[in-house]
């Protein structure tokens, strides 16, 4: 059974420690991430498959996909990583969750490529108002996909922090003043307009610049899939969401300019790309 350990005296004050048990899905020693399909971490997060940072590359020595492990998950304010990784056995890997549908012509599911128009999905915003994607036409957008209950500081909360950090420089630069931020929640069951609004206020979101959207779950999933977002939900627990991250720059005509994969983009990079787009147009 998972247990919450009391913080040791030598730990950092903002650090929390959890025991994680799970199975290695994949690892790549030069890369510092270990993808683990893990059990529920009581009091912290439901069972899911997630990439976790490993800070000592040696900790990956001797590990292989399929290995069963226990480890300590250290959660800091702005990060999380695995340590004390111990192999306890091994088991055949289950089939991977489906990636977004394979690109086929005219299915309407293809990954959007730069220059292609974003579908005009209809959403609901943090005020409960219907909001068609096309209503943003005329503004350059930076759009990402999140859910407010995401427990890992390096995933959705990082996207939130990056967007919050973008607000000021966007406001300060007259050339970028028209850029808008859009966070789309793929968890409409939890992320009602009221929940999104409260979440946004915590982030000190300026609603003239930053909009939170959600909508019909399947429609949001299909919309998000066009950007390469895949969302998996457990049948028995709606909070059990496994997802990846995509953040897109969309031009004022509603066409994709660029899609960032994962959590490694920085606000500085986005600002540079936005300025480049600005000078190219
Ligand atoms: Cu998340």
Task: Provide an overview of this structure.
18% of the residues lie in helices and 31% in strands. The strands form three sheets. A seven-stranded mixed β-sheet has the order 7-6-10-9-8-13-14. It has a five-stranded mixed beta barrel with strand order 1-2-3-5-4. Strand 13 (246-250) and strand 14 form a beta hairpin. By secondary structure, the chain is an alpha+beta fold. Bound molecules: copper (II) ion. Copper (II) ion is lined by residues 147, 150, 155-156, 243.
Number of strands: 14
Give the helix level as a range of percent: 10-25%
Reported for the largest beta sheet, the result is: 7 strands, mixed
Give a list of the ligands: copper (II) ion
- Give, in spatial order, the strands making up the sheet with the most strands: 7-6-10-9-8-13-14
Can you write the helix and strand succession as a string? EEEEEEEEHEHEHEEEEH
């Amino acid at each position: 059974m998972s247990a919450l350990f009391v913080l040791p005296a030598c730990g950092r004050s903002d650090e929390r420690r959890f025991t994680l048990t799970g199975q290695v899905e994949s690892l790549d020693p030069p890369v510092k991430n270990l993808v683990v399909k893990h059990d529920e971490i009581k009091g912290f997060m439901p069972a899911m498959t997630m990439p976790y940072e490993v800070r000592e590359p040696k900790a990956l020595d001797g590990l292989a996909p399929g290995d069963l492990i226990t480890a300590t998950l250290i959660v800091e304010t702005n990060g999380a990583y695995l340590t004390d990784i111990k192999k306890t056995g091994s088991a055949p890997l289950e089939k991977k969750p489906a990636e977004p549908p394979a690109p086929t012509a005219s299915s309407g599911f293809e990954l959007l490529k730069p220059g292609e128009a974003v579908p005009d999905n209809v959403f609901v915003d943090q005020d409960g108002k219907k909001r068609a994607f096309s209503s943003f036409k005329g503004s350059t957008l930076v759009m990402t996909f999140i859910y407010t209950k995401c427990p890992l500081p390096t995933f959705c909360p990082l996207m939130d922090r990056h967007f919050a950090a973008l607000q000021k420089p966007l406001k300060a630069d007259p050339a970028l003043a028209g850029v808008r931020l859009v966070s789309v929640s793929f968890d409409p069951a939890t992320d009602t307009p009221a929940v999104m609004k409260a979440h946004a206020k915590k982030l000190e979101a300026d609603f003239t610049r930053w909009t939170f959207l959600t909508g019909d779950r399947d429609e949001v999933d299909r919309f998000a899939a066009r950007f390469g977002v895949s969302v998996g939900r457990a049948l028995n627990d709606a909070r059990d969401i496994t997802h990846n991250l995509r953040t897109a720059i969309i031009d004022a005509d509603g066409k994709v300019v660029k899609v960032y994969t994962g959590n490694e983009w920085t606000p500085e990079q986005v600002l540079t790309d936005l300025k480049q787009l600005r000078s190219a147009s």
